[in-house]
Amino acid sequence: MRLIDADDFRSWLLKQKRLSKNYTVAALDEMPTIEPDPKKGEWIKQNPTVDTEECSECGYNIIDEEFETLFCPWCGAEMRGEQNE
């Protein structure tokens, strides 16, 4: 699997006058790959009387510490306690 910038590819496609399936596939194969910046966050306790925690990156709530995961199921942030700046 290769990660590409889909916005750049879409922009390039819209500028093309000649589009065929083979031409588009060849262009897609030539797109440079990108290295995404991994999200890092932490579970933040919202209320001491209720067992809910919130992702510091996207605000997704989990109900109980029993379900606390190493990654946010909504945004994919790694929950190691070191937030992105």
Beta-strand share of residues: 5-15%
Mean pLDDT: 80
- Structural class, by secondary structure, is alpha+beta
Question: Could you estimate the helical fraction of the residues in percent?
Answer: 10-25%
Describe it.
The protein has about 80 residues and is of the alpha+beta class. The chain has 2 domains: about 1-35, no CATH class; about 40-80, no CATH class. Helix content is about 25%, strand content about 15%. Strands 2-3-4 form a 3-stranded antiparallel beta sheet, with no helix packed on it. A two-stranded parallel ribbon has the order 1-5. A hairpin with a 5-residue loop joins strand 3 and strand 4. The mean pLDDT is about 80.
Identify the notable features of this structure and list them briefly.
2 domains, alpha+beta, 5 strands, two-stranded parallel ribbon, three-stranded antiparallel β-sheet, 24% helix, 85 residues, 14% strand
Sum this structure up briefly:
By secondary structure, the chain is of the alpha+beta class. The chain has helices at 6-15, 21-30, and strands at residues 40-41, 43-45, 53-55, 61-62, 78-79.
Write the layout of secondary structure elements.
Layout: H1 6-15, H2 21-30, E1 40-41, E2 43-45, E3 53-55, E4 61-62, E5 78-79
Parallel strand pairs: 1-5
Antiparallel strand pairs: 2-3, 3-4
